[in-house]
Structures are given as structure tokens and as C-alpha cells.
Amino acid sequence: MKIATYNVNGVNGRLPVLLRWLEETTPDVVCLQELKAPQEKFPEQAIKDAGYNAIWHGQKSWNGVAILARNVEIKELTRGLPGDEEDLHSRYIEAVVNNVIIGCLYLPNGNPAPGPKLDYKMAWLERLKIHAAQLLERDLPVVLAGDFNVIPTEHDVYKPERWVEDALFRPEVRESFNSLVGQGWTDAIRKLYPTEKIYTFWDYFRNAYGRDAGLRIDHFLLSPKLSNRLLAAGVDREVRGWEKTSDHGPVWIELSDQ
């Protein structure tokens, strides 16, 4: 079972890139972030024609998350991260696919920091930790996948000294993320590649992709039931070099059958 996560940075504007990548790599499940499309504008038919069922949680101009599954049923469980009824951002959707619980998330950026946006990010992380702990208590196969907007360590960023005050790399953000992982989750990329330089995002500016001046902010967290099933993981880095592409590259893992 191949699961991918991809911050598509506008699902309609980048649709040719998304469809090409789906055709070339055929993941079984895909978590998308930053749809930047209201619910009624999601390109459901194009996704269906590519062989994928879909559920999505859209929002006009901003945010938006979706789960795609190739030729299998998606059973939606949760739409929106629990814990704050006043939070209307489309940042979380959860479903069961092939007996695996998939939590697709787009964690707040938090910049400029300090300030209200960082406060919202920290509060969102706290809600995520509560929900994640409840998922672990069920002792089921769970994957939390998406754009976490967190650079976990200095090893995950080009020139870390330039990011010290950024909300993706501030100490309190990394500490909160580490406490989430410490609940019992496995960072899939680092389990297989503990020391390699691996990035998932390259800015559009200053030839960041050409210089490989990137960040690792798109993550897979696996519950104990899934950690031992991890076979492979990687980043489809070349997609970042395609024309009119997202500033993120798709990230993927492969799991063995039960």
C-alpha cells in the first residue's frame, strides 16, 4: 500500500501537474493540502477520471484538504480537527481506507511570529496532540500525513541559522512537535533515513530548488501498528522541477500488507 502526501498549492491551478504525477506514480492513497478551492470547485470528475475516489474539505482561496483513494472506498470519519467549534479553517480530514485510518492535515504556518498567528498554530498543535493521543489509545493502524509546517531539527533545513525566528523552526514549535511524536508515533522518513539530507519544500525565490535550499516540513507519523509495516519512503523531488508546479514535492511511504 503506497500512501502519499502532497501540498498541491492550488488544486485547480496545478491540476495538470497533479494528474501527471498520479498517472506516473499511481499511489494507492493521496493526502492533499492547500486546495485553495471552495467545496463546490473541487475537480472531482477529473480526479475520478484518473481512477481515484475523493473526499475533501474545501475553503475559498485558502487551506483545504482532501483524501484520494485508487479504486477503493473511502469511509470518512472526521471533518475538521476536534476541540474548537469556532475554528472554521479547512485543515483536517480523517477517513478509513483499506483498514487504515488516514488523518490528512495542513497545520497552520504561524508567521509572522510572535503574534496571533503563532498563538493559533500552538493551539492547533495542542488540539492535534489530544486527538492523536485518542487515536493511539484505540490501538489501530493510523497514519497522520500532511504539511505540518514544522522543521523538526537543524538537519531538516538548509542554513538553519536563517530560520531561528521563523514559526516553522521556533523552539516552542519544535518542542510541541517532538512531544506529539513522543506519544508513540514514528517519523517514517527518519526511521528509514536517520541522517540523510531530505527536503520536501523549496521556495519559489532565489532559485531555491536549483540550489537544493529546502526544508523538510511534510511528514508521515505512523502509529505502532503501522511502524513495523513500513517498507520504503521517499520524496518525488523531480515534480518540484516541473512547469507550473507546487513549491512542495510529493512525499510517499510504502506499507506491507497486514
From TrEMBL:
Q: What's the top EC group for this one?
A: hydrolase
The record's listing under SUPFAM superfamilies reads: DNase I-like
Names of the cofactor(s): Mg(2+)
Q: Where is the Endonuclease/exonuclease/phosphatase domain?
A: 4-248
One Pfam family this sequence matches: Exo_endo_phos
Alphabetized, the UniProt keywords read: Hydrolase, Magnesium, Metal-binding
- GO MF annotation: an example: double-stranded DNA 3'-5' DNA exonuclease activity
Coiled-coil intervals, chain numbering = none
Please give the InterPro entries that the UniProt record associates with this protein.
AP_endonuc_1 (IPR004808), AP_endonuclease_F1_BS (IPR020847), Endo/exonu/phosph_ase_sf (IPR036691), Endo/exonuclease/phosphatase (IPR005135), ExoIII-like (IPR037493)
Which EC number(s) are documented for this chain? 3.1.11.2
Q: Which family does it belong to?
A: Belongs to the DNA repair enzymes AP/ExoA family.
Stored PANTHER family: EXODEOXYRIBONUCLEASE III (PTHR43250)
Q: Which NCBIfam families match?
A: exoDNase_III, xth
Q: What protein am I looking at?
A: Exodeoxyribonuclease III
Q: What gene codes for this chain?
A: xth
